[in-house]
Amino acid sequence: MNKELFYISLFNNKHIGDDGAYIDGKVYSADAFCENVHFKREWMGFEQIAYKAMLVNISDAIAMNADPKQMMVSIALPKDIAQSEMESIASGLKKAADEYEIEIIGGDTIASDRLDFHLSLVSETKRPIFRKPLKEGYLLAYTGELGNVGKDLKKLLRGGKVSKRSKFIRPRLRRGFMKRASRHIKAAMDISDGLFDDLSKMCRLNKKGVRFFKKISRSVGCSGEEYELLFAFDRRDLKKVLQISKITRTPVTVFAKALRKPYRNMCKPKHF
């Protein structure tokens, strides 16, 4: 049993099911970013950890074609944390907030045995993009290159080190591409749990399957925390999407077509 899907099913609400809840021109999204689940302190500096915690939530807003506005940050701080480390955390939060023009308006702090972030973001959009509709014949694509995050995570788990430019350390959000391509995108979500896993969510919601144009390895398709965009569009807009890809210098891979057939996810659940 997929415990994540079971838990979500216990709440019957029309706003649940996308990267955020869209209500009257605003998108509300929330994320947890927790020590020993999403990161270890020996892998990243405090500023890097806080910066990534912000980007993880901002990624949801971008996937829904929304502009981030206000953020609330609740944080569990280790009891032995030093003042300089708290300053580094604040610096990382403010750095991301400044880059995306977000106002941090409050939150909560508690003492804990580990470092955990719980963030809530309010964004605005005039044209929200959801995970549906995915119609038969629509093309499916993703931005960037997938798989390196999974490789870097394995290195870290084995006690190795990765570059500061690794997408595991610093995700690359595709805000510029989404802003230009949004008029052509019919459905979208961010790739947080891996291409195959997130594709299964989109397919299940739309009661569709896919035909892959090329083989994608399990290591690439199951690589989580990529924070690239998974999106669908009408094949008549392929040329326009590829032009925007070139203009924004955003790699785009068109990998499948939506069909009326079941889709089976090959990845293990990441949430339990």
Label this structure with key terms.
60s Ribosomal Protein L30, Chain: A, 31% helix, alpha+beta, 5-stranded mixed β-sheet, 272 residues, globular, 2 domains, Phosphoribosyl-aminoimidazole Synthetase, Chain A, domain 2, 5-stranded antiparallel β-sheet
Task: Report on the architecture of this protein.
It is a single chain. This protein has two domains: 19-124, PurM-like, N-terminal domain (60s Ribosomal Protein L30, Chain: A), CATH 3.30.1330; 139-259, Phosphoribosyl-aminoimidazole Synthetase, Chain A, domain 2, CATH 3.90.650. α3 (83-99) links the parallel β3 (67-78) and β4. The model has no long low-confidence stretch (mean pLDDT 95). It has helices spanning 3-9, 46-63, 83-99, 148-157, 175-181, 195-206, 218-221, 238-247, and strands at residues 21-23, 26-34, 67-78, 103-112, 116-124, 139-143, 185-190, 209-212, 229-233, 252-259. It has 272 residues and is of the alpha+beta class.
